[in-house]
Task: inverse folding
């Protein structure tokens, strides 16, 4: 007898979930079961997915972050003020060419960073 009312209420709830246009992430029954469980036991239940413990890096993310870090070693790309991509594209090619030359020859090029430590002073003259 109440099934048509509940079905109509569910479809209306799904259509206007918090007026964001986004469907609710959980069913109302799951939410009520969680509330009643906490109310009865006073303990919040958490199920963890079994898997490796500790830190597990994501390989592709580290590759992307490493590439961005190498690009930032070039002053022109680190101080990016240009809005047109055709200005920065040659600088990216130059930076990656520099990286490839460093890998092939084993020598490093001059960096814009100061090699001396901040507490050391340079003696001029």
Result:
């Amino acid at each position: 007898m109440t099934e048509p009312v509940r079905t109509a209420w569910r479809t209306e709830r799904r259509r206007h979930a918090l007026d964001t246009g986004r469907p609710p992430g959980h069913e109302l029954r799951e939410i009520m079961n969680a509330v009643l469980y906490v109310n009865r036991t006073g303990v919040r239940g958490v199920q963890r997915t079994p898997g490796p413990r500790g830190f597990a890096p994501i390989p592709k993310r580290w590759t992307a972050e490493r590439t961005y870090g190498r690009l930032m070693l070039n002053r022109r790309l680190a101080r990016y003020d240009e809005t047109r991509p055709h200005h920065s594209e040659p600088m990216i090619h130059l930076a990656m060419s520099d990286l490839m030359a460093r890998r092939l020859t084993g020598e490093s090029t001059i960096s814009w960073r100061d090699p001396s430590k901040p507490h050391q002073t340079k003696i001029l003259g």
